[in-house]
Design brief:
The chain has 15 helices and 3 strands. The protein is mainly α.
């Protein structure tokens, strides 16, 4: 009887130890990610925390991740996304064969997705929650008026025409060819010029200083991205920026500069457009400078159509050199032939929701808001 009591006591202690180990194991596997997700929620509400992350921690994190991803000529982030999606599809079958049970299988998948979510934000995504541009830079937001917009258009069109006349000998027809590493544009030091430009303005606008390991990557699925009008994107998981392999030479420098702005800690699409424009339009190399002015033309046209009368709009168009108008129309036709309206609309809705979910209230319209930023800089006399 005494022996049975001792045995019963040992079993009880054994059960308690097992329960404690189970609690420790599952408390760690669920508690840590839940805590970090809660921290992300706090960053959303406190911009000063996000600003501290961007200035103090992101430079180190981005350098570390870029150092790893730069070892490979392909997009590591794209491979990671594909691998994660494949794992989510395959794992349930593996778990079923191993008799893991539905509850445990679903729990494992949820935990993996939680860590992917955490990785996205702590690797780069917290930059979405920084102070807005005007608050961070101390630049006053320009009050819009038709007169101010007309003044901006006059200055812009003049510089656009001038940049074409200086780059005319350089263009020689190849500007509407696809950019390749063996093409004419590859002989122009685009990366060096743009990185040097960012180095000069980084501290003024709260960007990370361009450092090492800034290796641009080709998209793994450029043709698919062309069908939804995506010419480049920032890979947040390994802080690498990816460009569409079907980019035209005329847009390559500006797109490179736009995606590099994201890599340097800028999440806003309008801001990325702004810095890409400032860096390329200030370049001494004529082809890079023209790319900056030309790539801004679409946003200028969109705003002009919306804000001006038809007569005023046509007057602005008449001031643009006919060679540039022809180039612009050919550029539009090139991408229109690749675009799939059904797929493009789905991508637009998804990305619009994604931006709004990350406190970019205007969604995809944020791209065109670059004109407002430029007008504010012009009023503040900061335009390069």
């Amino acid at each position: 009887m005494k022996f049975l009591q001792l045995l019963s006591g040992e079993n009880c202690r054994l059960k308690i130890l097992i329960c404690m180990k189970m609690k420790k194991k599952y408390g760690f596997s669920w508690g840590i990610p839940l805590f970090l997700i809660a921290m992300i929620g706090i960053f959303r509400m406190i911009p000063s925390w996000a600003e501290a992350y961007a200035c103090l921690f992101y430079p180190f994190i981005s350098t570390l991740l870029s150092a790893f991803s730069s070892l490979f000529p392909f997009s590591v982030g794209d491979c990671f996304i594909v691998g994660t999606c494949l794992w989510i599809l395959i794992y349930p079958f593996y778990a079923w064969r191993k008799r893991k049970g539905a509850k445990k299988t679903v729990g494992t998948i949820i935990r993996v997705l939680m860590w992917v979510y955490i990785w996205f934000y702590f690797a780069w995504g917290l930059n979405y929650f920084r102070f807005p541009f005007y608050e961070r830079t101390g630049i006053a937001k320009a009050a819009f008026s038709a007169e101010k917009f007309q003044d901006f258009l006059t200055g812009y069109v003049g510089k656009l025409n001038e940049s074409y006349s200086k780059a005319g000998d350089t263009l020689s027809g190849w500007y509407l060819e696809r950019y390749t590493t063996a093409g004419p544009m590859s002989k122009i030091p685009v990366a060096g010029v743009i990185q040097e430009g960012y180095g000069k303005m980084a501290s003024r606008f709260g960007l990370v200083e361009p450092g090492k390991f800034l290796r641009v990557k080709p998209m793994l699925w450029s043709r698919l991205m062309s069908r939804v009008a995506v010419t480049g994107y920032m890979g947040p998981f390994f802080t690498e920026f990816n460009l569409n392999q079907e980019l035209l030479s005329v847009e390559y420098p500006f797109t490179y500069a736009h995606e590099l702005a994201h890599r340097l800690g800028i999440a806003s699409e309008a801001e990325a457009n702004l810095y890409a424009y400032l860096v390329t339009s200030a370049a001494q190399e004529p082809a890079i400078r023209f790319s900056g002015y030309f790539s801004m033309l679409g946003y200028v046209v969109n705003n002009a159509r919306r804000l001006l009368t038809e007569e005023q709009y046509q007057e602005i168009v008449k001031r643009i050199r006919p060679e540039i108008v022809e180039l612009y129309n050919s550029h539009l036709l090139y991408w229109r032939e690749k675009y799939n309206p059904g797929m493009g609309q789905i991508q637009h809705q998804v990305y619009n929701a994604y931006l709004k979910g990350n406190q970019v209230s205007s969604g995809t319209k944020n791209y065109s808001e670059v004109i407002g930023l430029l007008m504010s800089l012009q009023e503040d006399r900061i335009v390069l």
